[in-house]
Amino acid sequence: MQSRKQTFPIPESLAGQTLAGAIRRLCGTNPPPSWTAARKLIADRRVLVGGRLCLDDTRRLDGGETVTILASAHAAPPGKNDVRIVYADEDLVVVDKPAGMQTLRRIEESNWSDDRKRRQPTLDEIVPSLLGRSSRVHAVHRLDRDTSGLMIFALSEQARIALVRMFKKHEVHRVYIAVVHGRIDRGRKIETMLVSDRGDGLRGSGSGPDARPAVTHVKPVESIGGNFTIVQCRLETGRTHQIRIHLSEIGHMLAGENTYTKPTPDSAVRADHSGARRQALHSAELQFIHPITARPMHFSSPLPRDLSGWIKGLGDRQKRNSPNR
Fold first, then answer.
1. Strand bridging mode 212-224 / 228-235
2. CA nearest neighbour of 271 among 75, 64, 5
3. DSSP H or E segment with residue 209
4. pLDDT tens track for 274-311
5. Where residue 324 falls among pLDDT bands split at 50, 70, 90?
6. Contact criterion met (CB below 8 Å) for 298 and 290
7. What is the CATH number of domain 80-321?
8. Is the CB of residue 200 less than 8 Å from the CB of residue 65?
């Protein structure tokens, strides 16, 4: 039914509509797609809601949510064999998280059947089995579902308390690699106050009682045809979606972004022509002092194959389209 990726914001007039019903209204064809065709899109793993794969055609939508119809099937969710243990001792573990996996299970998924949870596992459920532990691990920070790379779990209560304190005091050095729209020629420091609702239901910069300082350092690494830039993002603070928000707000939206597509609430939605199958963001470096042994710890992770392969293809495409060629 769709030959290319399309993203639709849900207007208030469709709030409360089922996903299948909304797809029939959103596609804009005459006649609209049949119920069978709409449900097949969902069953074929081609529909995202808010950037997340949705397989429930009866899911009720809220106004302001986004529905994305993919040109081809979304990849199957990663599993145990896709998670790599980078380092582990009795107090903490550092893992390399694959894209497409949540750090923790969301509250609304708590009533899923055991079979459904096994088919779409979360990182905190997988790590204990990889370590041969029966007890749970403790998340001290998170990565978005579609962000890959390094993160830490505490294994002891003493380490959990210490690591939470270290993150709050910004004592954990974190560097991400991202691919953004446009050309960035020099490094810059982005410093704003982030709020949970900037006026359109999305997190963003603003003022209010819940405003929290957020600082991101951005440094260009490589230009891709002048239309995209590989950048290094160092977090000084770690607010939810901080990098994605800051990049969008400075006019350099993350490739593969499907939520923060507007720099401000009143801006036009920016189209993503990158062809990225997920947000191009990778947690590439972690550096900290071990909270128990006081040993310096430094870990790095290369770009995963899905990102490095896509970047190569993006570069080749930019060269083919260059007017100087």
1. antiparallel
2. 5
3. none
4. 999 899 999 999 999 999 999 999 999 999 999 999 99
5. low
6. no
7. 3.30.2350.10
8. no
Per residue in 180-232, pLDDT tens?
A: 999 999 999 999 999 999 999 999 999 999 999 999 999 999 999 889 999 99
Q: Please indicate whether residue 306 is annotated as part of the active site.
A: no
Give the chain's end-to-end CA distance (angstroms, integer): 35
Q: One-letter amino acid identity for 194?
A: L
pLDDT digits (tens, 9 = 90+) for 223-241: 998 899 999 999 999 999 9
Domain boundaries, the chain: 6-69, 80-321
Which fold, 6-69?
Answer: 3.10.290
* Sign for the pseudo-dihedral over CA of 23, 273, 220, 249: negative
- Strand locations in the chain (E): 6-9, 47-49, 52-53, 66-69, 84-88, 92-97, 138-139, 148-154, 173-181, 188-195, 204-205, 212-224, 228-235, 281-289, 296-300
The single residue of 144, 146, 272, 306 carrying the catalytic annotation is 144
Own/partner long-range contacts of 302-311 (Cβ < 8 Å, ≥24 apart): 303/177, 304/98, 304/99, 304/148, 306/99, 306/277, 306/278, 307/99, 307/148, 307/179, 307/280, 307/282, 310/275, 310/276, 310/277, 310/280, 311/179, 311/224, 311/230, 311/280
Phi, psi of 229 (to 5 degrees): -135, 135
Give the C-alpha separation, 107 to 59, whole Å.
16
| The pLDDT of residue 257 is above 70 | yes
